[in-house]
Structure formats: structure tokens, C-alpha cells
Request: fold
Amino acid sequence: KAGVTQTPRYLIKTRGQQVTLSCSPISGHRSVSWYQQTPGQGLQFLFEYFSETQRNKGNFPGRFSGRQFSNSRSEMNVSTLELGDSALYLCASSLINLSGANVLTFGAGSRLTVL
Amino acid sequence: GQQLNQSPQSMFIQEGEDVSMNCTSSSIFNTWLWYKQDPGEGPVLLIALYKAGELTSNGRLTAQFGITRKDSFLNISASIPSDVGIYFCAGQRGYAGNNRKLIWGLGTSLAVNP
Reply:
């Protein structure tokens, strides 16, 4: 069973550019969450999508956006990049189990460097 | 955003030693999760806990869901070099709406001296 696939794994952008990251969840998982990870800040929640609808949102500016397609694949976009956006962006999918727990399976991440 | 209090922040131990780390919160949680992250990879689930007082093992790892539902503990016995990494706790307060969001600790960085 294939895991969560994120592309690209690494990318370098310059300030002011925009970037789109892609995530393919585990087959059958309909919930996709995105996190930003930076040293010292841990995992910061960006948003969660379920059945093409944003279900939860973190405290990030409007430059950060996402969407989910009918096949559950998801993309996130960051516009007008800033140096502080350099981070590992993690996607995770989940299959809500009978207890209702939100157990996430993560991808390997997309490492974004903004110069 | 809200974060769990995870301690210690880092540990440097000798191979063969036991390790203990914990997470605490002022809020009550319905689910506690423990993840491990290797360099350059995403976090991988180690143990999931669903009930107060629950004690669950996964090989040399044992985790407990605190009775108060406000804390959780992870123990690693007889550490080996491949235990090196960052360990994260995460808690879930409820099953609907905003309570579905996982709340995360900042991680415990573990180094093992062979």
C-alpha cells in the first residue's frame, strides 16, 4: 500500500515568487492535513481538507492557501514568498477510525528554501 | 497556536539506557499520539492511546495515557543507536470541528552514544 507522496521533495525560490506543493494521500484516505515545520517551532497546523472542503484552518496569513480534488489529492500554495516561509512542509492523510481519532500518516515533506 | 508542554527538550544517553519523556497540558484530551521523526523524513506513528489509564507497548516502547487525561508518557527501554531522532507527542481534544485538530509538543531530540 503506497504511503503519502509529496512533490517536489526540495525546491528553492526567491522572495516574491509563489510555490505550489502537491500531496497524494494513502488510497482510501479522504482527509488531508498540511503542516509547516521549522526548527524550534515544531509542527504548525496550516489546514485540513475533507471531501474537497476545508474543515479546519490554522493561524497563517492568506498567502497560504490549499485545495483538495475529487480524488483526495491536495495542493497547497504560498504566494509572495518571504524568507520566513523557508520550512519543511508536511502533508498527512488520515482515515478516521471507529474511535474518531485523527491518526495521521505523514509524507516525507517538501523542503522549501526562500532566498 | 496552542502547544503541549513536552519534556525534556533533548537527551543524550548511552546505548542500553532507558529513556523517559512526557507531555502535559492544561486541557483534557481524548487521544494521545506519539510520533518519531528521522532527519529528512516525516513523522512516523509509534503508539496511539485512546483511553485514560491505557498502557500500550510497541516493542521496546511503552506509552501511557494519563489518568487525568491531561498528560502522557513515553518510555524507551534498552536504547539502541537507531532510536536517534525527534519524538513528538500530539493530543486530540475531541472528534468534531476545531477539536479534531491535533495539538503538538515541540519534540524531544534523542541522541544515543554507542
